[in-house]
């Protein structure tokens, strides 16, 4: 069991999400940055999609009631175990009653805490991913007790820490496909879209990312149609709404771009004010 | 059966979007559903999921599609040779709705602007049989086609922050029910006590795309009784199988 002594800004349990439930209007959910979450699980030897804790901008305080191995990946938030600095991207052995805390965000936006065997919270519609109206809780709160596996601690601290691809956190470029309504933009608008940089606005969360810059356009709404995480919709008022993992399953705004799978992971690590540029891959 | 002019295009690494002409009609929706069903029945290698809306399907593969033209031509030839097979059975659901002023926050606005009496608004809403075109937006939100033209009403310019669960609403030429507390920009004319989404069930929503819905007007007193019965689990929703 893990006791939540203090919750961070927005912590949830996530795995790879719900697949095959979209006919009922259920969002995919799942970890925002699959690259970082998968890395943590791989370092611990977990299944790739084992449930992890996703922490946004600032992390929680967690007390472990079971000895286990953990790994922290994704954003760097100055983690420490009982006050001792621990590194990202390596297996850390944790004893009973150890407390994990976080400091200031250094880079990225979301960090992932993996534990040996994964978090064992409730499975609803095939997934442990928290989502309002589906799971009984939609975020982690102070006082929560999160079940983890009581597997024996297999080994002590490993000295190896994996070097992550820095580009994942630093690049401006977000790779995109042309969306179904892309061609409705004028040639000049198409050029501008790939030339301009956009900065992340406060209206950005697990459902969608938005930007401070407006993209002036006169596109018509479409008949409500299908969207995926990574679909960029353009509203009449010029907002570019990039749907993320908890995004709705259908939408009525023109879909001008579709982020690649890697690009969704990259965008998920951007926070308020960070800049991006769309780069067409086909 | 009519063969529509379809367009096929890559949507993401692992998905293909197939689109019918941009119209909201029953014949297109049933063609969408029958093609979707046919692809699923053919067990084409790698296809793991198909989502649909009014005039489109999104075919999702479990791999990054390398030879997009090969996959598209497989889908095309399937559409061209399709015959009506394995038609799923559809149901007609009778959904109780209370149109009392307590729930129908916008009955006034809709009746005034559309120059109808409130009782006419209510009657025009419960008389037709609606078709569930698809479920989207929120878990259990049914997109219903078949709203009487006299009830068409534009969306609110500013959505309400918090609508009551079960709110029955009109948005443009569509009508639907908010399955849970939610923000929403449609105009509210009633409320249904029915649970549209139960995440504990294997089939979390009783209805599916292609089914039909008829609203049954109920007085406030019966609404309260139904709320209790639904809570106790003693309520049975009425339905019948129909020949689509």
How would you describe what is shown here?
The complex is a heterodimer of chains A (282) and B (244). With 282 residues, chain A is mostly beta strands. Chain A has two domains: 2-164, no CATH class; 171-280, Cyclophilin (Beta Barrel), CATH 2.40.100. Chain A is built from four helices and 20 strands. A seven-stranded mixed sheet of chain A has the order 13-20-12-19-16-17-14. Chain A starts with a strand and ends with a strand. The mean pLDDT of chain B is 91. Chain B is an alpha+beta fold and 244 residues long. Helices cover 24% and strands 30% of the residues of chain B. The longest helix of chain B has 17 residues, at 26-42. Classes of the chains: A mainly beta (282), B alpha+beta (244). The A-B interface holds A 19-27, 124-125, 133-135, 177, 180, 222-226, 228, 230, 248-250, 258, 260-261, 282 and B 9-15, 17, 19, 22-24, 48-49, 51-58, 134-141, 143, 180, 197, 199-200, 204-205, 208-209.
């Amino acid at each position: 069991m893990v006791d939540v002594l203090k919750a961070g800004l927005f912590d949830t349990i996530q795995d790879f999400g719900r697949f095959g439930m979209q006919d009922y209007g259920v969002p995919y959910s799942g970890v925002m940055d699959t690259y970082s979450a998968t890395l943590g699980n791989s370092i611990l030897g977990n299944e790739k999609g084992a449930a992890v804790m996703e922490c946004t901008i600032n992390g929680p305080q967690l007390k472990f009631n079971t000895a286990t191995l953990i790994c922290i990946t994704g954003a760097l938030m100055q983690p420490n175990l009982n006050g001792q600095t621990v590194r990202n991207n390596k297996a850390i052995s944790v004893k009973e009653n150890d407390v994990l805390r976080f400091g200031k965000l250094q880079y990225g936006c979301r960090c992932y805490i993996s534990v040996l065997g994964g978090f064992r919270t409730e499975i609803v519609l095939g997934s442990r991913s928290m989502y309002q109206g589906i799971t009984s809780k939609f975020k982690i709160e102070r006082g929560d007790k999160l079940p983890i596996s009581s597997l024996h601690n297999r080994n002590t601290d490993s000295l190896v820490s994996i070097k992550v691809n820095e580009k994942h956190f630093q690049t401006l470029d977000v790779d995109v496909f042309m969306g179904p309504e892309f061609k409705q933009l004028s040639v000049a608008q198409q050029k501008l879209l790939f030339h301009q940089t956009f900065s992340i606005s406060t209206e950005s969360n697990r459902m969608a990312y938005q930007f401070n810059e407006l993209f002036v356009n006169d596109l018509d709404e479409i008949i409500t149609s299908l969207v995926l995480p990574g679909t960029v919709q353009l509203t009449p008022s010029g907002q570019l709404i990039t749907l993320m993992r908890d995004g709705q399953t259908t939408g009525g705004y023109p879909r001008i771009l579709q982020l690649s799978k890697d690009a969704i992971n990259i965008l998920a690590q951007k926070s308020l004010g960070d800049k991006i540029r769309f780069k067409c891959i086909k | 059966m009519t063969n529509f002019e379809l367009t096929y295009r890559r949507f993401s690494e692992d998905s293909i979007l197939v689109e019918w002409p941009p119209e909201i009609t029953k014949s297109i929706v049933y063609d969408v559903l029958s093609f979707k069903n046919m692809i699923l029945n053919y067990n084409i290698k790698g296809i793991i999921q198909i989502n649909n809306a009014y005039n489109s399907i999104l075919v999702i593969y479990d791999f990054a599609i390398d030879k997009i033209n090969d996959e598209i031509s497989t889908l095309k030839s399937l559409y061209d040779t399709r015959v009506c097979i394995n038609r799923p059975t559809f149901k007609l659901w009778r959904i109780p709705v209370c149109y009392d002023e307590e729930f129908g926050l916008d009955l006034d606005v809709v009746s005034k602007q559309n120059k109808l009496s409130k009782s006419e608004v209510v009657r025009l809403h419960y008389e037709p049989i609606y078709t569930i075109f698809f479920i989207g937006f929120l878990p259990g939100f049914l997109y219903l086609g078949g709203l009487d033209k006299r009830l068409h009403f534009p969306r609110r310019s500013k959505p309400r922050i918090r609508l009551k669960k079960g709110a029955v609403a009109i948005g443009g030429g569509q009508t639907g029910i908010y399955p849970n507390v939610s923000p929403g920009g449609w105009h509210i004319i009633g409320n249904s006590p029915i649970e549209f989404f139960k995440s504990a069930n294997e089939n979390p929503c009783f209805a599916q795309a292609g089914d039909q819905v008829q609203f049954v007007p109920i007085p406030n007193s019966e609404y309260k009784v139904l709320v209790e019965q639904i809570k106790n689990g003693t309520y049975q929703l009425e339905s019948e199988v129909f020949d689509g």
